[in-house]
Amino acid sequence: MFFRLFLLFSVGIGPVLARPADRPNILWIVSEDNSPFLGCYGDTFATTPHLDQFAGEGILFKNAFATAPVCAPSRNTLITGMYPPTLGTEHMRSEYPVPSYVRFFPHYLREAGYYTTNNSKKDYNTIDQPEAWDESSPKATYRNRRPGQPFFAVFNLNVSHESSIHKLVPENELKHDPGKVNLPPYHPDTPEMRRDWAQYYDKVEEMDRQAGELLAQLEKEGLAENTIVFYYADNGGILARSKRFVYESGLRVPLIVRFPEKYAFLAPAKGGTVTDRLVTFLDFAPTILSLTGIKIPPYMQGKAFLGEQRTEEPAYAYGFRGRMDERIDLSRTVRDKKFRYIRNYIPHRVYAQPLEYLWKAQSVPSWEAAYKAGRLNEIQRKFWEEKPAEELFDIENDPHNVHNLAGDPKYRNTLERFRKANRDWMLASKDVGFIPEARLSEISKSGSLADYAKSGAYNLEKVLEAAEIASSRNPEKLTEIIRKLTDPDPVVRYWAVIGTIVLKADAAPAKGKLDRLLDDPEISVRIAASEALLNLGETGKPVAVLSEALKSDNRMARVQALNVLELAGAHAAPALENAGALLKGNPKDSDYDVRAAKRLLQTAESRRPALEK
Predict the structure, then answer these.
(1) Cα–Cα distance between 495 and 103 in angstroms, integer?
(2) What is the chain's alpha carbon radius of gyration, rounded to the nearest angstrom?
(3) Beta strands 339-344 and 390-394: pairing type?
(4) β-pair partners for 61
(5) What is the greatest pairwise CA distance in the chain?
(6) Residue 413: pLDDT above 70?
(7) Rounded to 5, what percent of the chain is helix, strand, coil?
(8) What gap in Å lies between CA 43 and CA 47, rounded to an integer?
(9) pTM beyond 0.70, yes or no
(10) What average pLDDT is seen over the chain?
(11) What is the crossing angle of helices 555-567 and 592-612, to 10°?
């Protein structure tokens, strides 16, 4: 009772805690890249006895979501309690700085006397704050704390990571039968697809065993009665169209929280129950502070869903997609308990933009081959085609998100409600993701992007208007798009050019102004204008501009230019020498310009035999 009263009072006076004996330990068990493929979530093909038992003792969250469908920006959300499009940390492994007041939340726990450990993945998508941890290594453990010291410990289980299907296990060693896999409707029935799914379920079974070991260790050391335990995954996954994509398959994650009897008063329900409350990773940092009696800093955008600072349930869960490795994209999504809405701002790029890492799974080339051979049905083909501007899915009746209701008049009011929710959130959160990354990376050299957004230099309403018009695919908006091509704001000009790219040949009346933008002072505008003019049949100067961009010291400008050159086909030939220069010396294979340059050169090489014939 003392601890409960203390929490109530401490919320109002700052980060002061009760005596150590009264504070709960917190254990996080984090698996990588898995959707709720667990028996306790109704998956009868899964073999997960330890987590199924754990769910019977804890609270299972039906509607828990990562903010991003990929690890680094998703983990940035977890560690900061802030939305990456606010911080400028949405793009994969970008590491732009965050404001000085944004602290990795274990800082607050350490200051309050907790022993904080991380075993061992960080990948927080910004400049590290190693002082947030007492230990962060493959050997980090709560066992090294002082006697009686409360702990916050994270254990990351990477056995279920995407890479787990890159190296094939002999088929006779698989525990799950490929022939019995229940394929989602968007995946074709290829041997490689079935095999990757079966091997993945084996990895989830091993992940479950490892989670069980951590839970058993807690019991063995007599700590279970003083420890609140979380199990969750860092994003959905792992086969193509899940991880990296803002569907249920990429964003919905398992989340189970177990409270010992001593701390049951901090829980919203009894153990063994299921809740449909909407929860996102934005809420995790404030929730841990709420559970440990630490006042939640006002800058955090998430809301506590457990503990004495628990808030009312939010109406929506928000998510995003930015650049994924070497491929540029931009989507935003809003989810309530029945619908998922997606707004695609780069709709002219197909879903299946070639990614070096994604293509390492044999299921992906097999899907691509089936597409090229014309063996796919309409649902399976969509992954290889351009995106609609808007998507709306009825989750209850369409859990795999394959029937887009955005164009159905019966759902017009629902669509408009989600459009407004999406726009309101982007404005409220000061979303900097609409700044092209080549420019964004330059701005970050002078300080945080969140501070830049607050400075008045970023007219988000004006930029959003341009982005919405540009991505609408509406030829009737061309006059307005052409007018914006000469806007003083380079970000608005960029989005106006995107509008001409989306419209393809219908944008021919903009050609004169696009020609002039090849000399624009902003490199991202020059590159986008080159793509627009390539669509309209010009090759000479646009390719020269793209080739010159490959010599820029701005890596993200190089990535943008390489993305366009790959689409240019044989017309990209004059730029191949500069692309090859990016591979000289000792380039890191993890550098996204290097990956994109390799792909461009390989594609050009594959065309050569056909040209020689």
Answers:
(1) 33
(2) 25
(3) antiparallel
(4) 275
(5) 84
(6) yes
(7) 50, 10, 40
(8) 9
(9) yes
(10) 95
(11) 20
d(CA 310, CA 8): 11
Q: Based on the residue annotation, tell me whether 40 is a catalytic residue of this protein.
A: no
Q: What is the per-residue pLDDT for 585? A: 85
Give the residue-averaged pLDDT of 380-396: 98
E strand or H helix at 36, and its extent?
Answer: none
**CATH hierarchy code of domain 2-317:** 3.40.720.10
CB 86 within 8 A of CB 299: no
Record: fold of 439-612: Leucine-rich Repeat Variant (1.25.10)
Strand partners, 393: 340
Q: Which tokens is 381 given? A: 């083909």
Q: How far is CA 38 from CA 32, 203, 240, 246, in A?
A: 14, 12, 19, 21
pLDDT in tens, 234-270: 999 989 999 999 999 999 999 999 999 999 999 999 9
Element (H, E) at 2: helix 2-13
Question: pLDDT tens-digit profile of 417-436?
Answer: 999 999 999 999 999 999 99
Answer whether 329's CB lies under 8 Å from 321's CB.
Answer: yes
What pLDDT does 21 receive? 57
pLDDT 10s digits, 129-167: 999 999 999 999 999 999 999 999 999 999 999 999 999
pLDDT of residue 18: 46
DSSP 562-598: HHHHHHTGGGGGGGHHHHHHTTSSS--TT-HHHHHHH
Domain ranges of the chain: 2-317, 439-612
Indicate which residue of 71, 392, 491, 534 is catalytic. 71
Q: Count the Cβ atoms, other than its own, within 10 Å of residue 110.
A: 16
Q: Quickly count: other Cβ atoms within 10 Å of residue 574's Cβ.
A: 15
Cα separation values, 594 from 109, 123, 125, Å = 40, 20, 19
Cα–Cα distance between 335 and 317 in angstroms, integer?
5
- Please name which of 308, 315, 316, 218 lies closest in space to residue 266, comparing C-alpha atoms: 308
Instruction: In whole angstroms, give the CA distance from residue 1 to residue 16.
Output: 17
344, 331 Cβ separation under 8 angstroms: yes
Encode pLDDT of 99-110 as tens digits.
Answer: 999 999 999 999
